[in-house]
């Protein structure tokens, strides 16, 4: 296979007319300023993403083709948009810095959908949806479709984990185009959402707070087991 891209958490290979997205046993924080090796993390994030891509697919189209054990997904080649879309159900993280009158974990009256320009050097700045269109990244209609799809996927995930009494705080999505059609890409895992179960983070926030990669892997194991259990009983 031909390596076509390597990022902080994944390597992407070309395999025929498809891509193989390999998840690395690495964890980062602070736009990559903090790095650690986390043996087993890649396999856990890959399988969790596979299950959750399939789970949200009735509401949102994705780039997923198949799971390639132990730590890779087979996906359709996509033209990835340089935008991250965050859906917030509760106030946490960067939103508290720009709006200090919000309390940590304060429920929001309705979900907030944010667009961020994807650039580590700029620290992924918050941008207006109109700016996405003005910059030629996506049309007005596509921006509206991205917002709809992000909300649909986020609400599906929130409802899934609510069955276990867990608090789905927020989630970050990426979108791309396959054959000119918008689809959800990248991953859906503890690296991209915040999930509190009995007050415990089963997501990367644990590493941001502790720098404990071993403990993070243990929490990703819990997340995968919980996800499998909920999907089997759905």
TrEMBL record:
Pathway: Purine metabolism; IMP biosynthesis via de novo pathway; 5-amino-1-(5-phospho-D-ribosyl)imidazole-4-carboxamide from 5-amino-1-(5-phospho-D-ribosyl)imidazole-4-carboxylate: step 1/2
GO molecular function, a single term: ATP binding
Domain SAICAR synthetase/ADE2 N-terminal: 4-212
InterPro entries for the chain: SAICAR_synt/ADE2_N, SAICAR_synthetase, SAICAR_synthetase_CS
First and last residue of the signal peptide: none
Catalytic activity: 5-amino-1-(5-phospho-D-ribosyl)imidazole-4-carboxylate + L-aspartate + ATP = (2S)-2-[5-amino-1-(5-phospho-beta-D-ribosyl)imidazole-4-carboxamido]succinate + ADP + phosphate + 2 H(+)
Enzyme Commission number(s) of this protein: 6.3.2.6
Single GO BP term: 'de novo' IMP biosynthetic process
Key words, A-Z: ATP-binding, Ligase, Nucleotide-binding, Purine biosynthesis
Chain coiled-coil ranges: none
Top-rank taxon, per record: Archaea
Similarity comment: family membership: Belongs to the SAICAR synthetase family.
Protein name: Phosphoribosylaminoimidazole-succinocarboxamide synthase
